[in-house]
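Table 4 source record.
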Amino acid sequence: MSTTHLLTFLLSMLIAFFQVAPSYAGMVSTDKSFTKQSVQIDRENLRSLMARDEVRSLLAGNGLTVEQAQQRVDVLTDKEARLLAEKFNEQPAGGFLGALLIIGLVLIILELAGVTDIFTGI
């Protein structure tokens, strides 16, 4: 057998026995690609809240430091971070009650998730 026949035989066997699985391409929706970016923006907005004096005083009143609160924002799920950011954006500007509500929601969500143990006396 000549080398041309041998090479043809080997290539035909290679094609016959080693089939490559097809790859499937799908559309990536704008929502999916935008979601990751918006979650990061939401987390940054929540972190920037802690730079406000009124929020710092509320945190201190509840026995939390800014660093602890930032760590708690970091462990929120994407859904929780989005919910808190939406709640904050719905509140009127400069609302003391809104900041109190946000902090209360963060504490309740973290308590229910088992991340913190704040409400032990209740």
